[in-house]
Write a structure and sequence with these properties.
It is built from five helices and six strands. It is of the alpha/beta class. The protein has one domain: Rossmann fold (3-Layer(aba) Sandwich), CATH 3.40.50. Helix 4 links the parallel strand 4 and strand 5. The termini are close together.
């Protein structure tokens, strides 16, 4: 099966919970899933994986986190051409503009985006969102 990396940034823990649930779903599909906080892996190492799932919550005016995640993503984006990529994150306000912008940027980088959309969860994954995260990981493992 496939080997994937899940790299995330979190402030409240909601996006980490999503990352862990996505990894659980991927592992249920038989994939190897390595999970890293963005501070624990370099862009070059991330780019070595067959599948790359990236998670960041909406920040401020619906943007990616600017101090750690955005610089990591900027470096990684140069290496995404032809890569299988999935995007996810949590939000507490807005309408998902940050994810649409991120999706468009990933496509411009040449990423082969899973599902053509990212997975977003309002605040902490609970109820149906838990299954959505696991299904997302399972589907991405088979992508």
């Amino acid at each position: 099966m496939s080997k994937m990396v899940i790299v995330y940034w979190t402030q409240t823990g909601n996006t980490k919970k999503m990352a862990d649930l996505i990894a659980e779903g991927a592992r249920d599909a038989g994939a190897e899933a390595d999970v890293f906080d963005v501070s624990g892996i370099a862009a070059d190492r991330t780019a070595e994986y067959e599948r790359i799932a990236l998670g960041c919550p909406s920040m401020g005016a619906e943007v990616l986190e600017e101090d750690a995640f955005q610089p990591f993503y900027d470096e990684l984006s140069e290496k995404l051409a032809g890569k299988k990529v999935a995007l996810f994150g949590s939000y507490g306000w807005g309408d998902g503009e940050w994810m649409r912008n991120w999706r468009d940027a990933a496509k411009e980088s040449g990423a082969n985006l899973f599902g053509d959309e990212g997975l977003i969860v309002n605040y902490e994954p609970a109820g149906d969102d838990i299954a959505r995260c696991k299904d997302f990981g399972n589907g991405f493992a088979r992508y």
